[in-house]
Amino acid sequence: MAWHLFLHRAEPSHCIDVDHASAEGSDLTRRVPRSPVYVLLAVLVCLTFPPQASSEEETLPADYPASLERVLSVQLSRLSTEGPTLDRLLQLSELYMNIADDLFNDEERKQLAYEAASAMAKRALTIDERSAHAHFLYAASLGSGERLKGLSKGGLVLGELKQHIRRAIELNPTHAQALQMMGGLCAELPWLLGGSDKDAELYLKRAIAADGRFTNAHLILARLLMRQGRLAEAREHIESVLHAEHPHYPYAWKHTFRPEAERLLNLLSK
């Protein structure tokens, strides 16, 4: 699930490379050339995030992610017999996102699942345009799907992403996932396309304040702080990931976020 791992905001033709960072931060400003297409691709790779259940203590079936297909069958049956409701469509959108991210490996099946997630979120918006979560899910699934297509129309996609993320935050100023996505946009985009480290930090801190168990927000902020040489602050957010209690997205935390936090901590320790 490579889209979890945020790269670093590129300026017009450069991107920070933290893989060669030292503990003193002297190498955190090393830049390598990046093309505009690469920058747009990096943004969409990093923006999206699969929504999973948000119970107080999330647990997954022993056969997860294979269990997702069983859950999908039940949900589709209910949709057919009971009809569409806002909650059911949102659940299906989230479910298709999880299937694409955690279950499928080949790009064709992933693409179909992302498109299904996007369709469900869009249908949910026809029922209630004021659903912040529907706007978020539409943006998340759209971004993931466009990543697989190769970003032939990246600029147009980014505009639509921003529109729905902003609307989600307008409707719910404490929607942690939407705040994280906006923070990721600000951190990843070149300044000519609206990138801003200052805005990124504000959005990410708002996301963490709203719900700190979304541990990827800590990772994105840690990378941003490392780029700025604020290594002590970065370490605090990395530690928050490593020692998270009942994190959202337990599957992603175990397989992606925690290992990435360990990698970043090793960089700081060199």
| Unreliable sequence segments | 1-38, 52-56
The mean pLDDT is: 82
Q: Order of strands in the sheet with the most strands?
A: 1-2
Distance between the termini: 27 Å
Based on the structure given, which CATH architecture of the largest domain is correct?
Alpha Horseshoe
- Name of the CATH first level of the largest domain: Mainly Alpha
Class derived from helix and strand content: mainly alpha
Considering the protein shown, what is the CATH homologous superfamily of the largest domain? Tetratricopeptide repeat domain
Count of discrete domains? 2
Number of strands: 2
| Portion in helices | 55-70%
H/I helix tally? 11
The CATH topology of the largest domain, please?
Serine Threonine Protein Phosphatase 5, Tetratricopeptide repeat
Portion in beta strands: under 5%
Write the H/E string, N to C: EEHHHHHHHHHHH
User: Assembly state here?
Assistant: single chain
Largest β-sheet summary: 2 strands, antiparallel
What is the rounded Rg? 18 Å
- State the shape: globular
